[in-house]
Amino acid sequence: MKFDMGSTTLSTLTRSTDGSHGDLGTLIQQLIAAAQPLEGKFNGEGKAMFDSFKQHADGITAELNGSLASILGGQSGMDTAFGTGDVEQSDNAKHNMGAANFDAARFSG
C-alpha cells in the first residue's frame, strides 16, 4: 500500500474541520429550538428524557465542541510534524549528498 499525501492536505482538512467546529454548536442550538414545540407533549419516561436532553444540551454542546477542538489540535500537530519531517528529509539528503564521494563510484579507468 502506498501512502501519498500532498503538502496541503492536512491544512485543508484542518480548515474544513474548523468550519465544522463552528457549525456544530449552531446545529445543536437549532435542534433544541426545533424540539421546543414538543415540550409538554410527553409523559412518563419520554418527558423525563426530553427534559434531560434540554437540561444537558449546553453541556453536550460544550463536550462535542471540546472533542472537535482536540481533533483540530491533533490535525494541526500532524501538519506541523509532516512539514518539519519534509524539511528535515530534504536537509538530510542535501547533507549526505554533499558528503558522498561520487568519483569513487566511477567505473572508468
Q: Roughly how many Å apart are the termini?
A: 43 Å
Low-confidence stretches: none
Cα shape: rod-shaped
Class from secondary-structure proportions: mainly alpha
Radius of gyration: 27 Å
Quick recap:
This protein has helices spanning 9-35, 44-99. It has 109 residues and is an all-alpha fold. It is rod-shaped.
Describe the 3D structure.
The structure is a single chain. This protein is mainly α. It has a domain at 42-78. 76% of the residues lie in helices and 0% in strands. The chain contains two helices and no strands. Helix 1 packs antiparallel against helix 2 (44-99). The model has no long low-confidence stretch (mean pLDDT 81).
Question: What features would you highlight for this structure?
Answer:
109 residues; mainly alpha; rod-shaped
Secondary structure blueprint with pairings:
Blueprint (H helix, E strand, L loop, with lengths): L8 H27 L8 H56 L10
